[in-house]
Amino acid sequence: MDKNKVMDNRILLASSGFVHPSWLARRRLKHTLQTMPGYVFQQVASLQVLPQLDMLSFKAIVLYLHRQAISASALDCLDEFVRRGGGVLAIHSATASFKQEQRYFEILGGRFRVHGAVQTFKVSPTRSAEDVFGSVAPFQIKDELYIHEVAPEITVHFETMRDGEPVPVVWTRSYGAGRVCYAMPGHTAESMKHPMVHHILKRGLAWVCQS
């Protein structure tokens, strides 16, 4: 393998939790991402370590965690990383983290508001889905359906319907010179076994690494 290629795709995986997200779901995510050739991962449990890391050595950050507070220095580091061209793949409860931080909301393009019980719902691609994820057929998944406050600049690639209204499930956005992709599924360990979730996460990570 080309050593330069590996360095070009060094990913920081920020993931923690035993229940939300579950330990098994996090394990399945890590296994899925590690099947991507040409990507290497360094895992941390918290974004608080960002100021101590050489962020220029990473191509992207994967966020799969649920935390309430982030220090100003860690948020500054995340903000600068993305503005300079770093990528972010945010999964499920990432948008329920740091809800009081407006900059964090602006980076991800969405902030969790409410969810109902775990339920089965249909996920359909939008016309823009093929731009990032290729040709994908609608699929069903059983998970928490998050309702978000979203920024107007996001591009929705997958959606579902709730009370006759479309609800974003997967979106992308630009932030400075960087790219951000958010995927809602991830509350249950079963979601992380779904082949379409695997496809979306892999294609989403590849896309954010192109910035």
How would you describe this structure to a colleague?
Helix content is 27%, strand content 33%. Mean pLDDT is 95; it is low at 1-6. It is α/β, with parallel strands linked by helices and 211 residues long. The chain is built from 6 helices and 11 strands. The chain has helices at 3-8, 23-34, 72-83, 102-108, 129-133, 195-208; strands at 10-15, 40-44, 60-64, 87-91, 110-115, 119-125, 139-143, 146-150, 155-162, 165-175, 178-183. The strands form 2 sheets. The protein has a 9-stranded mixed β-sheet with strand order 2-1-3-4-11-10-9-6-7. A two-stranded antiparallel ribbon has the order 5-8.
Summarize the structure.
With 211 residues, the chain is of the alpha/beta class.
Structural features:
alpha/beta, 211 residues, two-stranded antiparallel ribbon, Rossmann fold
Which sequence of SSEs, written as H and E, runs from N to C? Answer: HEHEEHEHEEHEEEEEH
Note poorly predicted spans: 1-6
Query: What integer value in Å does the Rg equal?
Result: 16 Å
Share in β-strands: 25-35%
Biggest sheet overview: 9 strands, mixed
Helix content: 25-40%
Mean pLDDT: 95
Shape: globular
Number of helices: 6
First-last Cα distance: 22 Å
Helix/strand-derived class? alpha/beta
CATH-defined fold name: Rossmann fold
Strands across the major sheet, in which order? 2-1-3-4-11-10-9-6-7
Write down the CATH class.
Alpha Beta
Superfamily (CATH H level) name: Class I glutamine amidotransferase (GATase) domain
Strands, total number? 11
CATH architecture grouping: 3-Layer(aba) Sandwich
Described by its quaternary structure, the protein is single chain
The overall number of domains is 1
